[in-house]
Amino acid sequence: MTKPGNVYRRFSFAVVLLAFAVSLAGCASGIGPRPAALPQSIESARTRADHEDLALRFVREAESLRAKADEHERMVDSYGRSAYAIAEANFVAHCASLARRYREAEAANLALARMHRELAAKALR
Hints:
Blueprint: H1 4-29, H2 38-44, H3 48-81, H4 84-87, H5 90-122
């Protein structure tokens, strides 16, 4: 039979171990330099590298938006083939609308990336 004191000690040890693991995971996720906030990066952009960095950030955002648009277009197809199409046409319209807006945001981000590449070409080192 386990003594009450042993149960408490084991529980306490488990809590401490869990807290340590969580704190370690938090530290690991912050490894490496974090990019500056976008508005700050825009305001301080002066060099070719600054503008190339901004262009890359906008391209990455465009890629993320493209993936979301693709996912919502697949959802349109799925809802269209399921029982939801009969019961609720709103699912299809909702996903189609989001896909269209994600595509528009993707295009806007690619345009910003193109402009920053142009600024990078004109900027001093």
